[in-house]
Amino acid sequence: MKTFGYVAQSPEAPLAPFDFDRRSLRPNDVAMEVLYCGICHSDLHQARNDWGWSSYPLVPGHEIVGRVTEVGPAVTRYRPGDTVAVGCMVDSCLDCDQCRRGEEQLCRFACTQTYNDRDRITKEPTFGGYSKHLVVREEFALRVPSGLDLARVAPLLCAGITTYSPLRTWKAGPGSRVGVIGLGGLGHMAVKLAAGMGAEVTVLSRSPDKEADALALGATRLLVSSDPAAMQAAASSLDLIIDTVPVRHDVDAYMPLLDIDGTLVLVGQLGPMGEFSSLPLLTGRRRISGSPIGGIAETQEMLDFCAERNILPDCEMIRMEQINEAFVRLERADVRYRFVIDMASLRS
Description:
Layout: E1 2-7, E2 16-21, E3 29-39, H1 41-47, E4 64-71, E5 83-86, E6 89-91, H2 97-100, E7 112-113, E8 133-137, E9 142-143, H3 150-153, H4 159-169, E10 177-181, H5 185-196, E11 200-205, H6 211-217, E12 221-224, H7 228-233, E13 238-243, E14 258-266, H8 279-284, E15 287-290, H9 296-309, E16 315-319, H10 323-331, E17 338-342
Parallel strand pairs: 10-11, 10-13, 11-12, 13-14, 14-15, 16-17
Antiparallel strand pairs: 1-2, 3-4, 3-8, 3-17, 4-5, 5-9, 6-7
């Protein structure tokens, strides 16, 4: 399938138009025209090889909403015209113990990432959603519930499930007390989702400037983490903390906020962390954990949950040709809170 998109050819190069071929449909494949694609901070990291494993040419994009254009002969779930969504993975073995549990993101043989990866069968590079068309295995295409604003659904496929999964794993809900560190693309979704689950939500910020935003998103309060007296007064006040900070940072200040058996979950930072003290872990039986995205079933559950409660990210729409400007703004956190590309701006 001939298609086109925007590509990074090297860590230093700006994204630029790119003509390329999508693989032919296998019997269990779905082809789609991409309607909207969210911009994740990891797109910026991978385009610039910040993590050291990028392979070029690289077409980013793993928050994708589209319309089915063609299906393979073995496909039973979708037909042309259906609206579907694709997140961070497009395949896995579907046979190991983790895949059989619905945890495809933890596949023992590694799930196939939507971009910057290799196809499980042909080994050709996978290219993401900054493009006009996509081909995906049927099981990894998700149903978009009716009633959701399609222009705002895309970030749910990464920012949404990345924060929904730990909230579900650690049973956030009525009576639970959830803290959220960072109020960006991930953080604002964590606040909305935790509040939607009925939890009491505290946003942790180094300054009080974001208090109005935090409350508007559904938080109960904002706690200023640079205020020692306020932090001391909040000791043992949280059951779960979702840490969305995407860069290396110190977690020691946040651990005393957890009650006994509380958990701080890292969902933003990839790579080495600074040293931390074991004292609050040992004295309060507290934990530091990590969480990736969720599995396919959990991602569908998240989409349905958002539809039932009308939970959607706050988005700024851009055209595809504005991608390099958006990357610059993303790097300086100049977006509230998620960019989405309207793919109608690509040439047909």
